[in-house]
Amino acid sequence: MKETIRKIARQLKAGRKSNRTARNIIVLKSKQGYDDCIKQLKAAGIRPVKTVRRCRMISCVAPRGVDWTALKRHPSVAYIERDRHVKAHVRSVRSGRGRAARLKDECRIDPAKIPWNIARIEAPPVWKRTKGGCAKLAVVDTGIGPNADLTVAGGVNTIDGGSFKDDNGHGTHVAGIAAATGRRRIYGAAPKVRLFAVKALDRFGVGFVSDIAEGIDWCVKNRMDVINMSFGLSGESRVLREAVARARRKGIVMTASVGNDGPRNARIDAPARYPGVLGIAATTRGNRVATFSSRGKGIALAAPGVNILSTAPGGGYVRMSGTSMSSPHAAGGAALLRSLAPRATAACISRKLVAAAKPLPGGRRAVGAGLLQVAPAAAALGAKHAGRAGGGSGARNKRSRP
């Protein structure tokens, strides 16, 4: 490997002045191979932009003309791929700032604070049993908050290790749909879920696959119950697919937006199309598939995604449209079911949500099984899965991991 990396280093030095560069991900077969590669890169004067030992992943910036063939063939290297961009699935933003008085009794549900979209998925009837307090939900996005209607339990910034506060607005809006507390103006689907921010998209709503993969790995390490991913990649990424597979093996429920390319797209975006991920399409207030919502194989469910009011950084509220807005409805719903049944597997929770869906016109390639319906899914959870539900205690999740 030493001589191979020296040759690559010479190409990097020769192309330093090139304006055409790209990030590339090197994935090693073992931790020992990873350590050796890091050592050789350092000796050759190559500084990676990202290293994640748990995933045996190294991301480097290089001129587009660099020949990686020799390194790809090295017995310690699993594969090398382009570190591609992923983008948030938001279509439009409308103003809608405002505030509401704090309730004297925060335990009481104020019907006026339940948005139409949260009522449409039948989340509020489940709140009599749980508001999600036993579950941990991670939003992999542009960050979260601050907003008085959101309580963030923690998080990480996989871009540069800095703050996980939101510098775009997309992540805060998504988080509000899943987890707004109702303290000020609106409730989300799971008002007392333990909410975590995984900032992997920048202020433009764009990120690299390596940042996403590191974020998913953080979720696995920190034992998240649900991950929401309101972004997409039209191409293919083995790194992203394998990160999702690792999370699936650890029993995490994953929801993802399918994309905003409408009916003419060839397929829905990744990671929504990957096994173990609930791909969520967008519907209108009239219970029809949104014109912008991507079509294709792999859509599991549909949820409201047009003109959705939710939280914004700094304490305000805005309306946005996109399949980005649909996915967190399912994530919040999954968190409620996880809180009700800590011992239920991710596959069981996904099956209950799909089986309880309300049929809609458009077909499976447009709306999957139909409109997300959380209350019937919760009712369908068998007694053998039932655990101690928490309305807001933040009780420790004691379910066993596969």
TrEMBL record:
CDD domains: Peptidases_S8_Subtilisin_subset. GO terms for biological process: proteolysis. It comes from the Bacteria. The active site is at residues 141, 170, 324. The keyword Cytoplasm does not apply. Residues 136-370 form the Peptidase S8/S53 domain. GO terms for molecular function: metal ion binding; serine-type endopeptidase activity. SUPFAM superfamilies: Subtilisin-like. The keyword Nucleotidyltransferase does not apply. Keywords: Hydrolase, Metal-binding, Protease, Serine protease. It holds the Pfam family Peptidase_S8. Belongs to the peptidase S8 family. This is S8 family peptidase.
